[in-house]
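Extended Data, panel c. Modelled sequence:
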Amino acid sequence: MAGVCPYGRFTHAVVRGIPESFGKLADGGEGAATELAKAQRQFGVLTGALRQKVGLQLVEIPADPELPESWRMEDVAVIQGDTALVTRPWKQQRRSEVEAARRVLAELNLTVVEMGAEEGVTGGATLEGSDVLFTGREFFVGISKHTNHRGAEVLADTFRDFAVSTVPVCGGTRLKNICSMGGPDTIIISNTDGARKTLRVRCLRFLLTDHHYEVLTVPEEAAANCIYVRGPSKVDFLLHPTAEECPDSMQAFQKLTDYTLLPTACSEATKLGGALSSFCLLINRKPHAF
């Protein structure tokens, strides 16, 4: 397959600062009660870990108070290899968030594919990256309040080298709120009632593919979202929620004995339905792109 590399190898992380309007909704409404200063501290710890411990080059887009949800960088693009699909968020008010991301991705020499804004082009497609799980072998797309079937079709048309399966997501959550990659062949899955309900749909599609995955089950939903990076010297890094946030899941993470575990707080974003992976777009640039 063109542009395929071992899962988890990244060189860059694109992030966007926490705006003063953090905690508000893109439509002007109020979200859950959050602490701005605490959110900014947690963002700083996360970005510091990605840069200093994991060794990624950080590209930071300035915060924009006019775009209160723009810290959710994961939503605005899906990247595989040298191709970046700029998405179309469900909320009309969030669609201007993609503009800064589009510029940065182009500057990083990625081939930028547009979903398009016209109904006739996309058929009303909506797609947010937090509903997309790429395993290195195939894509799973959560069909949710935020992402529809037409959005999944656009993704499949963009990344034709990979199989794309849809997974209906129950309630208002996103697919990556209940599962994420914990390694090249490992999926971390929440064991909460909501996650089990989602994963029962369509006969546990995650486990019925042509590829075999190990499953690491965690008892708390917030613990299911982690960031895995295959670092230099083949070191496996896993950023995961802290013991304070997910005390019952620490035993599960300790099973990953060969990993460098990096507990990283994310409580303020979690209040808004976000997660660790919400904050960044991970990119693997080929050496000639430097």
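The first helix runs from residue 36 to 53. This feature is highlighted in the accompanying rendering.
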